[in-house]
Amino acid sequence: MSDVTRRKFLGSAGMATAGLVASPAVLRLTALGAEAPILVGSLHDQSGALGTSGQPMVLSVELAVDEINAAGGLLGRPLKIVSYDPQSNIQLYSQYAQQLALKDKVAVVHGGITSASREAIRPVFDRFKTLYFYNTLYEGGVCDRNEFCLGTTPAQTVEKLVPNAMGKSGKKAYIIAADYNYGQITAKWMTKYCQDNGGTVLATEFFPLDVTNFGPTISKIQAAKPDLILSALVGGNHTAFYRQWTAAGMKGQIPIASTTFGLVNEPSTLDAKESEGIMGAYGYFQELTTPASKAYIDKLHAKYGQGIPYVSELACATYEGVHIWAEGVRKAGTIDRMKVIEALEGGISYDGPSGTVTVDKPTHHAIRSAYLATVHDKLWDVTGSYPNQKPLDTAAVCDLVKNPNDNQQYVVKI
Amino acid sequence: MDLAAIVGLNVLSGIASLVLISLGLAIIFGMMKIINLAHGEFLMLGAYATVLSTNHGVNIWFAMLVISPVFVGLVGILVERTLIRVLYGRLVDTMLATWGLSLFIVGLVTMIFGNTINGVPTPLGGFQVGAYRSDLYTPFLALVALLLLCGVVVVLRFTRFGLIARATMQKPDMASALGVDPDRVYMATFGIGAAVTGLAGGLLAPVSGVAPTMGSAFVAKAFITVVGGGASILAGTASASLLFGSINQMGSYLTTPVFGEVILLVAATLLIRVLPEGITGRFFRGSL
């Protein structure tokens, strides 16, 4: 790690020196407007509670921008990243969003991790007419022509996870979820897909984020005797559930499928006994062995070392998001916001590490692959792939072709 | 019947974990009237000490029962010497200083070990009661909690150090005139409080998600227990843990975890309204 830091430091110091020496030339070029860099905004938490999730996302933005620059840039101009660290603080999100839109005047912003951060910065980019990409899996339903949401939504992942898990174990499910909007909404989707597939939900329990003792719940689950546990538990405290479950000797007795487990790096930090056999579904897994996925991971590791945090869907979709935006700019022939939006709406497809990603015109979401996997020996073992999954949940409520001025997040009625 | 046994075990586990997480705080608050807002971070350091040493091949029992308390005890002494020492008798200032300290420790641990969730496997395995399964670690925690309480009685009541410590807390100037160095007694007491907290952190590591911010989940409950218990360290902590642990676990079992927490807070509020000086302000007065 210290190696990278030193190299980075030398690199930036070198560039600064070069910049000083070459500044007359840069000034001249800027005046001509020919080779002034196109600014790409990046707004991901690098520190605080979400730092581990945000770090690979920024590395992915850097990797994508480097690749585009190595291929000659966009419209004959190089790209330059303007990156801020909101420190897992929503206030800083709003502040940096204004800075990116008004002071830096970036061509596009890739950013936001939690839904709360997205809803803080989305209105800012709407107001100041700055194109915005949100590349994170989330609960679905955002309908805004200025924004592209390229991560997966429940219709793409939960829809695959629930029936598969039920097929493996049985039809009676017990849902445990975090007690805030993500957990509440996801629990509704789990219920829906469970019932759609002929199953029943025995009980749904919500947990405040600071619950650490799961003893009563483990007893209740044993009393209810479900065939399957569906978990949307979130955060460090809730990880205790998987540990207490294993300690009670319940591991392997009733299987667990989760929409959140392993999104950061739980399989590698928890004991193998505790994570073994847990099922998950996301838009990407680092363990995916397709050539495109291997190339992406190799490039990240070659550039930043093996020590970077787990590369999940968050990072992969961000990498693809930058490339898709670049495709849009190439097609539009300009960085003008409306022209790029129209070009992207023309159905741009990009073959990324997760497979083919296509922009869906009516929803501004992505038609993309979903993958099913089971934890085995501290790694995800990918067991199923489902290409070209449409964001049907958002499509049910959002049509930006008919209502281009629509701007809200729908709560999808289930 | 089987179910009753399992639920009883859950209640026992709730009580034991409250005793563990609040005893160190009770020692520091009860003896020295220092409100240590970095209490949760001491727990977290204890948990990290166990996780790190176990991952480096140390026997888990040795890590939990020796390394964690010794390490956090030393941290406590360091904190007392550099920070607390100059703030005795200034309640609000100690709160501010230890609050800052807690932010500092969280930041430091995040910087060194990253903001990821760690853990060690739970030792001892499980057992079967009729149709239900539970883990042997819970009764073990209860046993340790009981031993700790006994240990506090023995030290405070039957040892010379306990006598000196109690005397110093009651009248430092008189103790000083009789040849005791209050400074050293304060340091030792703070260190012991921190070590007990470190032990609790180490013991909870196998059943929690160990992350830099884990302390915040425990600190509020620890304070509620200590305040609810009132002036006496031992009887207060034991009775408040018994009350709140049962209420919380039974509430969670009979309703939902959300209401389990709500019922606990309502009960604590009512208790403080009825008994402003805590349980031991009214009952077991003058006990340890």
From TrEMBL, chain A:
Matching Pfam families, A to Z? Peripla_BP_6
- The Leucine-binding protein domain is annotated at 37-376
Top-level taxon in the UniProt lineage = Bacteria
Q: Which InterPro entries match?
A: Leu-bd, Peripla_BP_I, TAT_signal
Keyword tags = Signal
On whether Signal is a keyword of this UniProt record, the answer is yes
Family per similarity comment:
Belongs to the leucine-binding protein family.
Protein's name according to its UniProt entry: Urea ABC transporter
Origin organism of this chain? Lichenibacterium ramalinae
TrEMBL record, chain B:
Superkingdom of the source species? Bacteria
Major place of residence: membrane
GO molecular function annotation: transmembrane transporter activity
Q: Which GO terms describe its biological process?
A: amino acid transport
A GO CC annotation recorded here is: plasma membrane
Q: Where, by residue number, does the polypeptide cross the bilayer?
A: 6-27, 60-79, 91-117, 137-164, 185-206, 218-244, 256-275
Question: Which Pfam families is this protein grouped with?
Answer: BPD_transp_2
Q: Could you list this entry's UniProt keywords, alphabetically sorted.
A: Amino-acid transport, Cell membrane, Membrane, Transmembrane, Transmembrane helix, Transport
Kindly give the membrane topology term recorded for this protein: Multi-pass membrane protein
Compartments reported by the entry = Cell membrane
The similarity comment for this entry is: Belongs to the binding-protein-dependent transport system permease family. LivHM subfamily.
Identification of the protein by name: Branched-chain amino acid ABC transporter permease
